[in-house]
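Comment thread on ticket #2218

A.B. wrote:
> Attaching the input chain for the structure job we discussed in standup.
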Amino acid sequence: MRAGRPVTVTLGDLQDRVDARVQSGSYTSVSEVVRAGLRALDREEAALDAVLRQRVQEALDDPRPAIPADQVFAELQAHHAARVTAAKRGA
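C.D. wrote:
> Ran it. Output below, let me know if you need it in another format.
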């Protein structure tokens, strides 16, 4: 008995890659390939979440004083203006 209901998926260019995996014997069915792909995506997303959480925590733990948003935006605008000017000179 199936654990879920049947779903139709259009794989497009990926179909050949899925078929090759089944034909090689690495997987017994297209469904197994798709399930493995979803598990891999879950692992990738979990790893990315862990990295992002770590970086946020590092930022929160940083003892340096915060930089006011106005100052950050002013510096970014100045940096961008300098790059635009340099690009115009080089053109």
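A.B. wrote:
> Thanks. Noting for the ticket: The chain has three helices and no strands.
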